[in-house]
Specification:
Elements lengths: L16 H13 L3 H14 L4 H13 L3 H8 L8 H18 L3 H14 L7 H15 L5 H55 L12 H17 L17
Helix pairs in contact: 1-2, 2-3, 3-4, 3-5, 4-5, 5-6, 5-7, 6-7
């Protein structure tokens, strides 16, 4: 994680910044992180806006298991430090700090970040090691009560939604059955009307309109009857008196 700082400054009394950087890098590579952090801290006081110095100081603190100090140093890192490198350092520092403080949510967040960082298949060994450590810590610790309560509430809400959906399905089924009953009732009514129509007597056939010949025959019959009456106005006994109108 250490990249040597090569700068050219005017000669001053004592070691130059480049010489101090070489010494700090050597300490770091020899796992003398406390000595390295002292030199990086001195260089940072001289060049407070140099991101690489702040990054190397944070790396030394991280190796000393001082994630709070490492996180503080990383806040000023930007510019000449690669974004992926900085993202990994922030994730690992955040994970270490969360584990130290037993912050379950912080560990979850750091683990999610590490998973995202290594999802492209290119990652540092420290990222994979940190991810494994974070997953192991989560598996050995229970989430806080409020998260358990939230999960329980979510499960209850899902159950309520399932019950509501079941009630809606039953209501729809009842409506379908009611509609089917109405259809059957309508069919029965239609059949009853058809039966009544078949049982109702047919009206007598209509008499066709009288033809002129039929009318003349009736008139002739009436006239004959009138001629057959005697002087008393009574019809002869042998002859019918004709139809009664």
């Amino acid at each position: 994680m250490i990249l040597l700082i090569l700068v050219t400054l005017q000669s001053v009394s004592g070691p130059t910044p480049a010489e101090l950087a070489d010494t700090a890098a050597e300490y770091y590579l020899n796992c003398q992180y406390a000595e390295a952090s002292e030199i990086w801290g001195e260089l940072r006081s001289r060049m407070p806006h140099h991101s690489r110095i702040a990054y190397n100081l944070a790396a030394s603190f991280f190796q000393m298991d001082s994630p709070l100090e490492a996180d503080s140093a990383l806040t000023s890192v930007s510019g000449d430090v690669d974004e992926d490198t900085l993202a990994s350092a922030l994730a690992l520092t955040g994970l270490s700090l969360a584990i130290q403080m037993e912050d379950y949510g912080g560990v979850e967040s750091a683990v999610s970040t590490l998973i995202e960082n290594i999802s492209d298949g290119v990652s540092l060994d420290c990222e994979r090691t940190g991810l494994e450590a974070g997953l192991n810590w989560l598996s050995n610790h229970d989430p806080p009560d409020d998260q358990s309560d939230d999960q329980q509430d979510q499960n209850e809400d899902q159950q309520d939604q399932s019950d509501d959906q079941q009630d809606q399905n039953e209501d729809q089924q009842d409506q379908n059955e009611d509609q089917q009953d109405q259809n059957e009732d309508q069919q029965d009514q239609n059949e009853d009307q058809q039966d009544q129509s078949e049982e109702q007597p047919q009206p007598p056939p209509q008499i066709d309109e009288m033809t002129p010949e039929q009318a003349q025959a009736i008139l002739d019959l009436i006239e004959e009857n009138q001629q057959a009456q005697d002087s008393t106005g009574k019809a002869k006994a042998a002859l019918p008196s004709g139809p009664v109108w």
